[in-house]
Specification:
Chain lengths: 607, 83
């Protein structure tokens, strides 16, 4: 099928607002945040101008220059030079330029102009520029550049009218202007003629940075921010979580009250309402975590944290640039691994990809929370700390420490110690846009509900099925479930995990956990309810069936094990190398096995 | 003249870039620095130092702020401005 729509590409420096503009133009909901390198892939959308013209819009990763590129910048270069497979060179470019950062962005524009494609300049964030006292002579700028220049405010509803009107008119070819060969000199000449900057370049941001980047206060603030985030997950999310889990439990019992006892009742009551219902209960906690991550992303604080931690991360063989991907791993490792494209150094990127899955993602939270509330007594430690909270903290800290240790081993194994660059832009601070945060949370709810009603529901039903059939022979000596497919499969695999203290039911639950970690909860609920046909609460049912040592060992296993199939698939896609996938799986398996084994043995001795 | 390395500036010093030196032929880090605007005549300011060993450095150049490690900043030769 031939497509006659005009094809335009959004090009510009990182953090110029290309994706915000793209979302505004096409109605898309691509992720935006306040740091360089949020967009790491090309994204396509369509827009219709008021006059009814259809235009295909391509959003590209930001780039600083056409030379020396990181993986995300390389995509932009490939598209613009026609080397990107399946993508023709765009017919025109909308060059998105941050009006508050003209000097840097004009240089790239002059470099892009050399391509000879028609260009419209979208002078973005003009509202902010005015507030800072930057005045720009737009007609003069347009004349000097030989291309139309329109003002845009991508974050405002009516902020793209001028751009749409210009797109309606068409994009004229660039009028012949030759640069002198020294782009910086040309930029300076243009700046001198068209831009008036305020004399005082010190801004509010500098005053904030004095505190947030202070050697002592900066680190204290960072520690406080992290501490508050995790406290909030418990303080705000936990009460809602309990309320939802209780009401799902009640709903399950009410709905199945009239049913006769049997495996189907077990599936509905324990598997669906008990297992999946208690997973649904974790949504408030997950959303609280996401809320804090989104606010941090929008504010411009994250690159500051990366600045503060660069030195320490370098010491263990990572880079400050690894900080943002690793932080987002607390939500999920998959976007985090894709996000590593903005790390320019290949080795730094690879190490970050390898250790990212060790960060405690939100899918582990339900498993931890369930086991902790079932097995860890609710009492105070040293009179101040809540013991349950301390165990959860230890699991999170264990993941971080393991990641640092693995990165350090990687550093020791690195034969040549090549110099790597940081060269990271720190964006201006910005008040979070509640609309963006709302969209981010809404998408999270959708993803979670889709997972719950899709893959996890399916896994729960499959697990119920294999736990119920075939039924036991007439003169069976053992419980019926041990003759089912699940029983046979679990018992067959169990010897491998017996040293960790796992019984065959837990071993079985590890299989669906490989597709989705949370489904271990629902599987355990199903298997035990099929076996016992009782309607106890999931937590107390677990507590009656295995020891505290086993529960601790299982949590440690979940902290380190290579459990998520989608993560391994993304590692393959991003590195293009099966050896990395195998390495990643193998080291995590060994690490988890040893750690869980040690935990089990020590717990047996001490508890 | 009053030339020194960017890495030797004191906190809050203002200076003007003279040049970026290549530490090896076609040094990619130096090329990137020039692309980011570290070219002769650009005024800059050292606005912050990292908490561990004063590394990395935060440089305000124009209206942009860049975090540079010491070894990157050593490539940039600047002229200190009278305060």
């Amino acid at each position: 099928m031939t497509d006659t729509a005009l094809r335009i590409a959004l090009v510009g420096n990182p953090n110029a607002g290309k994706t915000a503009l793209f979302n505004r133009l096409t109605g898309a909901r691509q992720k935006v945040a306040n740091y360089a390198g949020v967009t790491v892939d090309r994204k396509e959308g369509r827009l219709s101008t008021p006059g009814g013209r259809t235009i295909r819009v391509l959003d590209l990763p930001g780039t600083y220059s056409f030379e020396s590129a990181s993986a995300d910048e390389a995509i932009t270069l490939a598209v613009l030079s026609g080397r990107y497979r399946g993508e023709a060179v765009p017919e025109a470019i909308v060059f998105v330029m941050d009006a508050t950062n003209l000097r840097l962005h004009l240089r790239l524009l002059l470099e892009v102009r050399r391509l000879g494609l028609p260009i419209i300049v979208a002078l973005n964030m003009v509202d902010q520029a005015k507030r800072l006292g930057i005045s720009i002579d737009v007609p003069q700028l347009s004349q000097r550049l030989g291309m139309p220049v329109v003002e845009t405010v991508a974050v405002r509803r009516d902020g793209t009218q001028a751009l749409l009107a210009q797109l309606e008119l068409g994009i004229p070819p660039v009028s012949p202007h030759r640069d002198s060969g020294d782009l910086h000199a040309d930029v300076r000449a243009i700046m001198a003629d068209v831009v008036r900057l305020p004399t005082d370049t010190k801004t509010l941001d500098d005053h904030i940075d004095r505190w947030t980047l202070h050697p002592v206060f900066g680190l204290l603030i960072l520690a406080l921010v992290m501490f508050l985030t995790f406290q909030a997950v418990y303080a705000i999310g936990k009460p809602m979580t309990d309320a939802i889990a209780d009401s799902m439990e009640w709903l399950g019992q009410t709905l199945t009250a009239s049913m006769g006892d049997g495996p189907l009742k077990g599936l509905l009551q324990e598997g669906i309402f008990g297992g999946l219902g208690s997973l649904l209960g974790f949504l408030p906690q997950i959303l609280t975590l996401f809320f804090f991550i989104l606010v941090l992303e929008e504010s411009g604080y994250l690159p500051r944290a990366a600045f503060l931690l660069d030195r320490s991360m370098l010491a263990v063989g990572l880079s400050g640039r690894s900080f943002i991907p690793l932080l987002s791993s607390f939500a999920c490792a998959i976007p985090s691994i894709i996000g590593t494209r903005s790390i320019p150094d290949r080795r730094d990127r690879l190490v970050t990809i390898l250790v990212a899955p060790l960060m405690t993602c939100s899918a582990r939270l339900p498993v931890y929370a369930l086991l902790i509330s079932a097995f860890i007594p609710h009492r105070l430690l040293f009179g101040v700390f809540n013991l349950q909270g301390a165990v959860l903290f230890a699991l999170y800290a264990g993941g971080i420490l393991a990641a640092l240790a693995v990165a350090y081993v990687g550093k020791l194994l690195r034969r040549r110690n090549q110099e790597t660059a940081l060269l990271m832009e720190l964006p201006p601070y910005r008040l979070p846009k509640w609309r963006d945060i709302g969209i981010g949370l809404w998408e999270r709810i959708w993803i979670f509900l889709k997972r719950l009603t899709g893959v996890m529901l399916a896994l729960t039903i499959v697990m119920w099925f294999i736990a119920s059939f075939p039924s036991a022979p007439a003169n069976a000596a053992n419980p019926a479930i041990e003759y089912s497919i699940a029983g046979i499969l679990g018992q067959w695999m169990q010897p491998l995990f017996a040293p960790l203290g796992f019984n065959w039911q837990i071993t079985l639950a590890l299989i669906p956990a490989f597709a989705a970690r949370e489904s271990a909860v629902a599987t355990l609920a199903t298997v035990y309810s099929v076996a016992e046909g009782q309607d106890a609460l999931l937590g107390s049912m677990l507590a009656g069936n295995f020891s505290v040592a086993t529960a601790l060992s299982l949590m440690v296993w979940f902290a380190f094990a290579p459990q998520c199939m989608s993560t391994l698939a993304i590692i393959k896609r991003e590195t293009g190398n099966w050896r990395i996938v195998v390495l990643s799986f193998a080291y995590m398996f060994v690490l988890a096995y040893i750690a869980a084994f040690a935990t089990y043995r020590l717990a047996m001795v001490w508890l | 003249m009053n030339s020194l390395r960017l890495s030797d500036l004191a906190l809050h010093d203002r200076a003007v870039v003279e040049q970026v030196l290549d530490t090896c032929p076609s040094d990619p880090i130096s090329a990137r620095l020039r692309d980011l605007g570290f070219v002769n005549g650009e005024p800059l300011r050292l606005t912050a130092k990292g908490p561990f060993g004063g590394n990395p450095l935060l440089i305000a150049i124009g209206t942009t702020r860049f975090a540079l490690r010491r070894n990157e900043a050593e490539r940039v030769i600047v002229r200190r401005e009278a305060a």
